[in-house]
Design brief:
By secondary structure, the chain is an alpha+beta fold. The protein has seven helices and twelve strands. The chain has one domain: Deoxyribonuclease I, Chain A (4-Layer Sandwich), CATH 3.60.10.10. Strands 3-4-2-1-12-11 form a six-stranded mixed β-sheet. A six-stranded mixed β-sheet has the order 5-6-7-8-10-9. A hairpin with a 2-residue loop joins β6 and β7. α2 packs across α3 and α4 runs parallel beside α5. It is globular. The two termini are about 15 Å apart.
């Protein structure tokens, strides 16, 4: 089974002015068809997205792919989505607006989706997008995330925490997950952490990650950052040159039954 995480920049492509001129306006038939092809190319059973789009748009994508869908709203403007070949039994949202706080924890998005793999096999997919600029707020988000994940582990030991962490693996949120026994897929079976933002014109960042709970980690067999045509280009930036997003997807594969 393959599981992917991908920050999709609102399905605008990057840079948007180049991409949208070719694939058409947001929500158009051509635009939806394009991103159906993009997600299909990932060849993954579960795809978690960050910086998503309005529910009706992603529903069209999911329907054309034949995937189940859960959406986690954003308190501001960046919903998350989980596309799954397997039924989604339940979803929980961790990101909520606070009338007393301009930027609450998980101001981008955070939530969990319970996926039924088959009879007796379920797993939680925890899709997060942490704050991009505030280290202390990311620490708070990490503390909340740890509490939520501990609760999910009581339900099933099969938990994947993935998404745009906006941080490298030396920050608190990563340490919290390691304390719970979670394993970073790229470190375990992908040859080490690799950049997930390094397209021309973007600073290099190592910020998109997949973490697997201890039971699932024993079934990890492979992980990689997707760098194929359309996902990444080395530049130089020129008219008509664009990619699907400013981030690169990360895909991990697990093997065998894990109930």
């Amino acid at each position: 089974m393959k599981i992917a995480t991908y920050n999709v920049l609102g399905l605008t492509g990057y840079p948007p002015q180049e991409a949208l001129s070719e694939v058409g306006p947001l929500g158009s038939e051509k635009h939806i068809d394009h991103f159906v092809r993009v997600f299909t190319e990932l060849d993954s059973d579960i795809i978690a997205l960050q910086e998503g789009v309005a529910v009706r748009q992603i529903q069209q994508v999911a329907k054309r792919m034949g995937y189940f869908l859960a959406t986690h709203p954003s308190p501001i403007a960046w919903p998350g989505h989980v596309l799954s070949r397997f039924p989604i039994l339940e979803s929980r949202t961790f990101s909520h607006a606070d009338p007393c706080v301009d930027v609450p924890p998980f101001s981008r998005t955070a939530g969990a989706s319970l996926v039924q793999i088959n009879e007796g096999e379920r797993l939680w997919i925890v899709d997060v997008h942490l704050h991009p600029g505030d280290v202390e707020l990311r620490k708070v988000e990490g503390e909340v995330l740890r509490e939520r994940v501990e609760a999910l582990l009581i339900d099933t030991p099969n938990v994947v925490v993935l998404g745009d962490f906006n941080s490298e693996v030396d920050e608190a949120v990563h340490e919290y997950l390691r304390e719970l026994g979670f394993v970073n897929a790229m470190q375990q079976v992908g040859g080490g952490i690799q950049a997930t933002m390094d397209t021309v014109g973007i600073q290099t960042h190592y910020i998109d990650h997949l973490y697997f709970s201890p039971q699932l980690a024993t079934h990890l067999v492979a992980a990689h950052v997707v760098r194929s045509d359309g996902f990444r280009h080395g530049g130089p930036q020129s008219e008509g040159c664009w990619v699907h997003s400013d981030h690169l997807p990360v895909v991990a594969e697990i093997d065998g039954h894990f109930a």
